[in-house]
Every structure is written in C-alpha cells, then in structure tokens.
Amino acid sequence: MFDKILIANRGEIALRVIRACREMGIQSVAVHSTADADAMHVRMADEAVCIGPNSSTLSYLSFPAIIAACEITGAQAIHPGYGFLSENAAFVQIVEDHGLSFIGPSAEHIRQMGDKITAKETAERLGIPIVPGSKGGVPDVESAKKAAAEMGYPVIIKATAGGGGRGMKVALSEAELEVAFRTARSESKAAFGNDEVYMEKYLQKPRHIEVQVFGDGQGGGVHLGERDCSLQRRHQKVFEEAPGPSISPEERARIGGICAKAIAEMGYKGAGTIEFLYEDGEFYFIEMNTRLQVEHPVTEAIFRQDLVREQIRVAAGEKLSFSQEDLLLDGHAIEVRINAEKLPNFTPCPGKITQYHAPGGLGVRMDSALYDGYSIPPYYDSLIGKLIVHGRDRPEALARLKRALGELIVDGVDTTIPLFHALLEEKDVQTGDYNIHWLEKWLETNLG
Ligand code: ADP
C-alpha cells in the first residue's frame, strides 16, 4: 500500500480523498494555487505545496508542477479527483513514466473512452446497448442526410471530441439538418479543435441513468447499481438519486450485469461510470466516464462502501474488497449540488462566506470545503458543497433532504439552496416523474 498520496485537486473532492487517506493510515499531500492558500484542503492535508498562480492552466492543470510536487514530498501516487486531470491520458502516461501511480484507469482506457466514436464502438463490441446512429463520423451534409433518413428524424449531431454538452445540435426534420450539421461542426471546431461529428437518433423524453462500475484491472468487475441524474440544467446535473425511481430490481440486475461483465472483459482498473439514456424500458449508452463522479456519494450511501478507499486499493494492486454478492442495496439516497450562483440565471457568485453551518443528524452527509470567513475565489468551479441524504426509502430521503436543507446556512454569497427548497414542493419531484428536459421547462416557467 502507498505511504503517501498527492491529491491533484481542490475543494470538496480534495477533502473527500484526504479523509479516505487518513482512515487508511496514508499521508496526504495537498497542492494549491496562490488563490487557494487559505483553502480547507490545504489546512486538512498532512502537507501542502503551492504549485502555481490563480489560473488553473498554470496550477491544477500543470503537469510539471504536479510531478515536481510529488518529487519534493515523496508521494508515490496521485489521486486526480474529478475534472482537471482526471481524464487526461497524456498526464497518466507522464505520471507512470516518472515511476508514480495514477489512481484511476490506464491511459489506454481513458483514451478509448475519451473519443466518443471509439467509446461507442467499444461499448457495442462489449455487448452494451447503444443509441442507434451513424457508423462512425459523418463527413458531409449529404452523408448526414443519408444517415438521418436511415435512422429517422429527429436526429442529434454530436462532436466526436465532445464534452460538457458542447457541439450538439438537434434536427427535427430534413429542413433543419444542413444548418444543424454545419453549426455542430463549427462549434466543435471552436471548442475542441476538431470538427468531426457523428449522428444519433434523438430520444425525446429520456431519463439519464448511469451505472457505477468498478474493476480491479485483473479481470474482476462489479456494478453498484444506477443513479438517476435526469434533473439537469444545460446538461449540468443538479440533483441526483440512487436507486433510480424508474428502475426495477430486474432491470438493475440486467443492465448492471452487462456493465460489470464489460468492465471485467476490458480489464478496467478502478471506478467508472457508464452513462445511458433510458426511455420506454430501454437503455442507450451515451458515454463512459473513466473517473470518480461528483455524485458518487449517493452510491456509497445505499451500498455502504467507500469508493475512494476502493480506488486507492486497486491502484495499489489489491483485489476488490467486495464481490457482487456482497453489494446489497439499502434504502434511497439523494444528492443536491450547492453552487455559489445567483438565480434565476445561475451567474457565478464568488465572495466571502460570512456564516456557514452544515446540517447533521441521522442519514445526512455534507461534503464541503467551506468555513466561516472563507473567500470563494472567482477562478474555479462554482460547486461549494454537496448535501447527501440517505433514508430507508425515497419518501424518507425526501423528508430528510427538506429537513437538512432547512438547517444549512451559507451566508455572504448567493447559492442554489432556494432552488432545492422550491423543487421539493413539486409533485413530479416528489413522485420521481421527470426526464432530462423537466428541469429546463420548470426553470422557464418558474424563474424565466
Ligand atoms: P457530453 O459529453 O457533452 O456531456 P453526452 O453524450 O454525455 O455529451 O450527452 C450529454 C447530454 O445530451 C445527455 O445527458 C442528454 O441530455 C443529451 N443527449 C445526448 N445524446 C442524446 C440523444 N441521442 N438523444 C437525446 N438527448 C441526447
């Protein structure tokens, strides 16, 4: 096992990893930009190294700065958290070339899943159901028209190099196709420096269902059920729950089994998430994330497992500490993302926290790096906390969420807390009756 791990991240996820390290008796090293000198992860880690100025390009994303920090402190492994370098295959290669361990999958698996066309081909080969679509990239409008005619309208044009919902355009009919195709290509070129696009059948009212998987890199693979993350704004998740309210135990076992088998066959190492759109009882693969997800705590709650501990174990060459039979689903968990943002436009709202009080009590977990007097810097993500609740069933989890939100105090900046108070009053949220468009429509009607 490692003696010392460097955490190449900040905020709540850096704390999350430090906590796992401490429980495992492993020393932790925080890295930080000058803007984060007073951040909680710097205070909580056993050691801290300043790796650069405010700009994340020059600090949290700087390969040489992070490798040098490992050399100075003697850290043997790097945990990337999520975002930043967590899905950067070139970084993983360099980490390994320096004789260090990357806590995550191999560079090859990251690369394979980072390119959407290759990811889809791989998924199909492994027996994972995919969205009907073009065979590979679509080079011109004529080919796009042909592909669309075959799969039927509406269609969606997506960037091969895509991410964060950019470079995607829907065409409801052939009349809209040419403009949609050209726009998707130019957006993709601007955002990713690559204008290759592919096409899929556009699903009209799907839910976003993602399966948590884990592999030991030695042929072992399990699934930890699904999360429903359908409540999204601009393709950003805001409210996540597990298990999915629309998924039966039989469906869970079926899709989970397919995913676990695929992971084992790939020889995948560590945590991963296989994302699907789900409509009329069918799952359609859209992408795989080769890292720990923001919303992993809802899965931890219902399976009572520490996913970060497990990531560290398998990175150190150990086998998984649980088998599929050990993983028994218990109750229901919900996470809401507390962002420093001003409604109704969700404008980032950095600034000084004058008062912070975290909720507590049975079944409540608050993952946050906030403290009284902390100043949220304007340079990074606006996520300032995740409130996770666990109950014996969904109604209990909802009641607990309402109670816990009532106890949470974040003063000094605007936050998304009022959004969740309002959402909990909605019948569709209470019954779990929503799809990926529900929140956008609700925001238009209620905040627009
Ligand atoms: P990104 O990596 O940019 O987030 P994804 O492929 O994960 O791209 O898709 C992001 C979101 O776009 C999905 O969660 C869904 O809301 C929407 N989407 C993607 N593909 C389709 C499709 N075939 N039909 C309907 N909606 C889609």
Please describe the structure with a list of short key phrases separated by commas or semicolons.
single chain; 448 residues; alpha+beta; Rossmann fold; Dna Ligase, domain 1; D-amino Acid Aminotransferase, Chain A, domain 1; 3 domains; eight-stranded antiparallel sheet; five-stranded parallel sheet; 22 strands; 35% helix; 27% strand; binds adenosine-5'-diphosphate
Describe the SSE topology.
Layout: E1 4-7, H1 11-24, E2 27-33, H2 40-44, E3 47-52, H3 63-73, E4 77-79, H4 89-97, E5 101-102, H5 107-114, H6 116-125, H7 141-151, E6 155-159, E7 169-171, H8 174-192, E8 197-201, E9 207-216, E10 221-233, E11 236-242, H9 249-266, E12 269-279, E13 282-289, H10 296-303, H11 307-315, E14 332-339, E15 341-342, E16 347-348, E17 351-352, E18 355-357, E19 364-368, E20 375-376, E21 383-391, H12 394-407, E22 409-411, H13 417-423, H14 427-431, H15 438-446
Parallel strand pairs: 1-2, 1-4, 2-3, 4-5
Antiparallel strand pairs: 6-7, 6-8, 9-10, 9-12, 10-11, 11-14, 12-13, 14-21, 15-16, 17-20, 18-22, 19-21
Helix pairs in contact: 4-5, 7-8
The chain binds adenosine-5'-diphosphate.
Keywords: ATP-binding, Biotin, Fatty acid biosynthesis, Fatty acid metabolism, Ligase, Lipid biosynthesis, Lipid metabolism, Magnesium, Metal-binding, Nucleotide-binding
Domain ATP-grasp: 120-316
Catalytic activity: N(6)-biotinyl-L-lysyl-[protein] + hydrogencarbonate + ATP = N(6)-carboxybiotinyl-L-lysyl-[protein] + ADP + phosphate + H(+)
